[in-house]
Amino acid sequence: MRINHEDLIAKVMSSVGGLPAFRIEELLDYIEFLKSREEKTEDPILKVAGILSGEPISAKEIDEELYGKEGQR
Predict the structure, then answer these.
(1) Taking a C-beta distance cutoff of 8 angstroms, is the pair 55, 63 a contact?
(2) Residue environment code for 7-20, b if the CB has 16+ CB neighbours within 10 A, otherwise e
(3) For residue 27, what pLDDT is reported?
(4) 16 neighbors 27 (Cβ within 8 angstroms)
(5) In the chain, what are the domain boundaries?
(6) In the prediction, which pLDDT does 47 show?
């Protein structure tokens, strides 16, 4: 049986009340760590999608851009 979100928060809050301050600080650090991991799960492709807008180019044009034209090799 799964506990809903609000009930989980209430359970955590009631459990935290019995901890000493230094443990609550540790818990807060861990929560911030978990939140930072969630933020990093964004697809890296989406981060660069904006720079990919423009005219499409062919595979040959990509090769020429990377390696130069055939006559220049």
Answers:
(1) no
(2) eeeeeeeeeeeeee
(3) 93
(4) yes
(5) 5-72
(6) 62
pTM of full prediction above 0.85: no
Single-letter residue type at 13: M
pLDDT (tens digit per residue) in 46-66: 666 666 667 777 888 878 888
Residue 65 tokens, joined: 């851009």
pLDDT in tens, 25-48: 999 999 999 888 876 666 666 666
Q: Of 12, 48, 44, 45, which Cα lies nearest the Cα of 31? A: 12
Q: In the numeric block, which tokens belong to residue 73?
A: 């090799």
Residue type, 65: E
Write out the two tokens for 44: 């890296």
